[in-house]
Specification:
It is a single chain. With 77 residues, the chain is mainly β. Helices cover 0% and strands 69% of the residues. The protein contains no helices and five strands. It has a five-stranded mixed barrel.
Length: 77
């Protein structure tokens, strides 16, 4: 997990899945939170968040890349 990462470009995809980037230390990593679309009710683009996740290798359309499988997300305190 990570603390105080900046949430960027959040959007709902599929059936209430949250797609976003987490930015920290000059890097942005792609993330998806299955069934976490509801967090956009209280957290907005650019907010600092704490996230619990599992890093996975996402293989899509012939490419491979790191993606965070986000399990929990909250506003950073």
């Amino acid at each position: 997990g990570t603390r105080a990462a900046r949430m960027a470009q959040p959007r709902i995809v599929g059936n209430n899945h949250l797609k976003l980037y987490l930015k920290q230390n000059g890097k942005a990593i792609d993330g998806i939170g299955f069934d976490l679309g509801g967090v956009l009710d209280s957290i907005r683009n650019g907010d600092l968040v704490d996230a619990a996740f599992l890093p996975v290798i996402n293989e899509w359309d012939g490419g491979r890349g790191l993606q965070l499988n986000i399990r929990a997300l909250r506003e950073s305190r």
